[in-house]
Design brief:
The chain has a single domain, classed as Chorismate mutase (Chorismate Mutase Domain, subunit A, Up-down Bundle), CATH 1.20.59.10. Helices cover about 70% and strands about 0% of the residues. Helix 1 packs parallel to helix 3. The radius of gyration is 20 Å and the shape is elongated. It contains three helices and no strands. The protein is mostly helical.
Length: about 120
């Protein structure tokens, strides 16, 4: 997985930005900042994991286009959704939420595969 580039616009991010400043005790804010720091790290990991996942699906899209395979694979998608719902249950994550996220990702992948296929056939 790629490492974050510290020279990006994300360096302007203020982890202590909060509309609660002055509304709650400083100790509460400090605990909130600490928890949010973990959340920020998870968010960064999600972004980099998604980037790596989409790099792999781009390779799949090019392979499918070269061999004139359809952009979508409904059986694979159904199997993946069932698998992720089970993983979500095991992880104590709402399976409905996990399915929504995966469906969004799958729709983006299919859109990318369609674009790759069109550019292969037109180029």
């Amino acid at each position: 997985m790629s490492e974050p580039n510290n020279n990006t616009e994300a360096t302007d991010f203020d982890p202590h930005s909060s509309s609660l400043r002055g509304e709650v005790e400083q100790s509460v804010l400090e605990e909130l900042y600490s928890i949010r720091g973990s959340i920020d790290n998870y968010d960064a990991q999600l972004v980099y994991l998604l980037a790596e996942r989409f790099k792999a699906t781009q390779r799949v899209g090019h392979l499918k286009a070269r061999h004139q395979l359809p952009p979508s694979d409904p059986n694979r998608e159904k199997s993946q959704i069932e698998r992720l719902r089970q993983l979500a249950r095991e992880a104590h994550l709402d399976p409905e939420f996990a399915e929504k996220v995966l469906n969004f990702i799958i729709s983006e992948v299919i859109r990318h595969h369609q674009n790759i296929s069109e550019s292969h056939h037109n180029g």
